[in-house]
Amino acid sequence: MPPSRPLFGLERVWRVADRLWPGFVNQLVIEGTGSLDATRWRAAVSTVLPAWPGARARLRGVLGWTRWVADGAPPIVTQVDGGGWDARGPAPFGATRLDPDAGPIVEVLLVSGATPRIVLRTHHAAFDGRAAWALAEDLGAALRGEAIRGAAFADLSDVALIGEGPSAPEPPADALTPTGPATTLAEASTWARVTIPPMGGQVLARALAAFAAAASPGLLRVSLPVDLRRHHPGLRACANLTGFVRVDPRSDPSAALRSALDQRAEGGVVRTAHTLRSAPLAMMASAGKKAARATLRTGLASSSATLSNLGRLDPHVLDGAGFRGARLFWIPPANPGTPLFLALTGHPEGIELCGGMPVGFASEGRLDTLLAAMASGMASGMAEPR
Question: How far is CA 119 from the centre of its chain?
Fold first, then answer.
C-alpha cells in the first residue's frame, strides 16, 4: 500500500479555495545565470521522489475519510519560453492548475530568456512555504549529487502538533480591503512585485507599518501565517502545517504577535478548521463563493490582507546542472477569500515584496501603487505604529 495521511481541516479549506479559483499554488521563483538542463532536472526529480512520497500525493475518499495517498502523478518538469517576461507580474505559464485529485501537485518550470529562471510550483493544499522550501533544498542537492534529507508524510497530524486549546472562529467581515472598492466582480487575480534595498531587522514590523500607512483609512486586520513546526523543532514534513494569528497593523502589531505566539494562538484556526473535515465540499464551496462575492461587492472582508514573511533565503538553493541563482521571490496563491496576499522574501541583494490580488481590487494601477508605497515606507525605516 502506498503511504497516506488524512487531509487536514485547513488543507480542506485550501482545497475549496482551489475549486473556487484555480490554481491555488505556491510559486518559488529563482532568477540566475547559466543553462537550464531539462534532462538533469528530470533525473533530480526521480532521485528525490522516493524520499518525498508527498510530492506525488493525490486525494482519495470522501468527507472526513479523505486522505492524501502517494500514488498520483509524479512531479513534472516543463520547459517554457520566458522571453519578454520581466518577472514583475503575471506570465501565462504560471497560471496552469495543479490537480490535487489526480496529480501532479508539483511542477518545475524551466523558464528560458535573457534571465533564466526556475519556478517550483506546489499545490498549497499539500505544501506550505516551509514544505516547498525543503523540497527545493533536496532538488538542489540531487542536482549537485549531494545527500537528500527527505520529508515525513504518513502519520502527520496538525492538531497533534498544537495540542489542546481554544478554537478561533472566523472574524466578522468588517475589515476594509486595502485598495478601496472593486471595479469588477470578475473571478480572476493578478500579482505584482517590487524589490526593496537590503535593510536591518524588524522587516515584518516595517512591512506592517508600511501597509497600514499605504492602505485605505479605516479598520484593517492582517492575517499572519505561523509555522506549526515550531512546536516540533527539526520536523521536515510534506504538508500544509500553517496556522494564523490576526493583528491590527494600526495598533502595536509586534506586541500583539508576541503575545499571540506566547499563547500558541495560531492553533485556534487549526482547531476550528478541524471541525470542517466532514463538511461537504459543495457546501463549503458555495459558502466560500458567497463570501468572496460579498467582499468584491462591499469592499469588506474578515481580513484585509495576509502577510507571509518567508525570511532571508539562499538564492543558490537550486544551483546545479549549469545554473546559478542570484535572486528569489515567492508568488503568493491569490484567491477570492483574501483581498490581498503579500509575500516577503529576503536575499543578499535585497527584499522582495510580492502581492497577489483579485483584479477588481488591483485595477487602475492600485496594486502597483500600494506595493510601491509599502516599499518606500519600508526602505525609509518607517517607525512601527503604536
Answer: 14
Q: Name the nearest CA neighbour of 294 among 339, 333, 249, 342.
A: 339
Is pTM, for the whole model, over 0.85? yes
Cell output for 276: 470542517
> 146-169: buried (b, 16+ CB within 10 Å) or exposed (e) per residue?
eebebbbbeebebbebbeeeeebe
What mean pLDDT do residues 230-254 have?
94
Three-state SS annotation for the chain: CCCEEECCHHHHHHHHHHHHCCCCEEEEEEEEEECCCHHHHHHHHHHHHHHCHHHHCEEECCHHHCEEECCCCCCEEEEEECCCCCCCCCCHHHCCCCCCCCCCCEEEEEEECCCCEEEEEEECCCCCHHHHHHHHHHHHHHHHCCCCCCCECCCCCHHHHHCCCCCCCCCCCCEECCCCCCCCCCCCEEEEEEEECCCCCCHHHHHHHHHHHHCCCCCCCEEEEEEHHHHCCCCCECCCCEEEEEECCCCCHHHHHHHHHHCCCCHHHHHHHHCCCCCCHHHHHHHHHHHHHHHHHHCEECCCEEEEEEEECCCCCCCECCEEEEEEEEECCCCCCCCCEEEEEEECCEEEEEEEEEHHHHCCCHHHHHHHHHHHHHHCCCCCCC
Q: Rounded CA gap, 80 and 130, in Å?
A: 26
d(CA 19, CA 284): 10
Q: What is the pLDDT of residues 86-99, one digit of tens each?
A: 899 999 888 888 99
